[in-house]
């Protein structure tokens, strides 16, 4: 008689979105790339060779020109410097929005899932459903239009509509964990609600929350770029990837690098975020 080895589900590492499992060295390399982008964004002002606002050379110099690796724009500003600062704005803003959404939504979902009753079904989750029923991008645009364009108002508008997704995910995880035998055993042992929450529910939710947040960074980068493309980001002449692309669209056929460099920076940031999120999902075991 043949025997079958049963592997516990929580020991199985999840696969990436594309269905391919990443090897550990590849996953760690992608996580290192994610960290490298974060460091570049954090120290962008130190890395920028020129002032991103002031003209420093001839106009519309092509990439690989002497002294200007990515060329200059139609005013003579260094594109490398403006792109580095734009990366800083987009990347750190995306991290801030994801962190705030995870904190607010995670707290709401944790309390709703652990408490249950009318607090869950009537109060917390109905508020979450109300936000989820609204078109997030349009609500963010409306908030920015009401408060006035600017980076701070843009972050407020996006953060306002970003937390409900985390609330739903965390609540679902808490509900699933609450039905597990070890949580039931803790209840039978007369463990307090706070102890059950912090010792048995929260540790099981953290991996899923981290994975969800890491996979969400690219979406926030794209949304922020779209809002700045529409003129709802920082005011000119402040560098911002979406806004710099929009202002130079008329040069796309003649000096492609002027709108192309910030647009490619958005593409690369999104790609790094998605690959890094997949790598984190492969490295962190989710307990079920």
Report what the structure shows.
The chain has 288 residues and is mainly alpha-helical. The chain contains 10 helices and no strands. It has helices at 24-42, 44-47, 79-115, 117-133, 136-147, 151-178, 181-188, 193-229, 241-247, 257-283. Helix 3 packs parallel to helix 6. The two termini are 30 Å apart.
Percent of residues in helices comes to: 55-70%
Number of strands: 0
Structural class: mainly alpha
- What is the CA-atom radius of gyration, in angstroms? 23 Å
Strand coverage percent: under 5%
Count of runs of 4 or more consecutive helical residues: 10
As residue ranges, the low-confidence spans are 1-19
Largest sheet: none
Shape: elongated
Span of the ends, CA to CA: 30 Å
What value does the average pLDDT take? Answer: 84
Give a short summary of the structure.
The protein is mainly alpha-helical and 288 residues long. Helix content is 68%, strand content 0%. The protein starts with 23 loop residues before the first helix and ends in a 5-residue tail after the last helix.
Question: Could you give the topology of this structure?
Answer:
Layout: H1 24-42, H2 44-47, H3 79-115, H4 117-133, H5 136-147, H6 151-178, H7 181-188, H8 193-229, H9 241-247, H10 257-283
């Amino acid at each position: 008689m043949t025997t079958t080895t049963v592997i516990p589900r929580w020991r199985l590492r999840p696969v990436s979105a594309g269905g391919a499992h990443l090897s550990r060295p590849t996953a760690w390399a992608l996580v290192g790339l994610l960290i490298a982008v974060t460091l570049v964004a954090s120290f962008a002002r130190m890395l920028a060779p020129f002032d991103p606002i002031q003209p420093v050379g001839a106009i519309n110099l092509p990439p690989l020109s002497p002294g200007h690796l990515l060329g200059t724009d139609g005013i003579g500003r260094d594109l490398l410097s403006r792109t580095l600062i734009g990366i800083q704005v987009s990347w750190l803003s995306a991290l801030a929005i994801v962190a705030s959404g995870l904190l607010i939504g995670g707290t709401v979902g944790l309390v709703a899932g652990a408490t249950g009753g009318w607090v869950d079904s009537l109060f917390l989750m109905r508020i979450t459903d109300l936000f989820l029923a609204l078109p997030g991008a349009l609500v963010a645009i409306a908030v920015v239009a009401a408060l006035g364009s600017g980076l701070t108002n843009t972050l407020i508008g996006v953060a306002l509509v970003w937390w409900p997704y985390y609330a739903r995910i965390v609540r679902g995880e808490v509900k699933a964990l609450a039905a597990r035998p070890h949580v039931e055993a803790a209840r039978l042992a007369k463990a307090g609600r706070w102890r059950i929450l912090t010792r048995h529910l929260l540790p099981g939710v953290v991996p899923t929350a981290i994975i969800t947040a890491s996979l969400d960074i690219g979406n926030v980068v794209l949304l922020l770029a779209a809002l700045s493309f529409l003129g709802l980001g920082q005011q000119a002449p402040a560098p911002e990837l979406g806004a710099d692309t929009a202002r130079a669209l008329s040069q796309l056929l003649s000096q492609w690098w002027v709108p192309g460099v910030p647009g490619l920076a958005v593409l690369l940031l999104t790609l790094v975020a998605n690959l890094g999120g997949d790598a984190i999902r492969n490295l962190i075991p989710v307990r079920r």
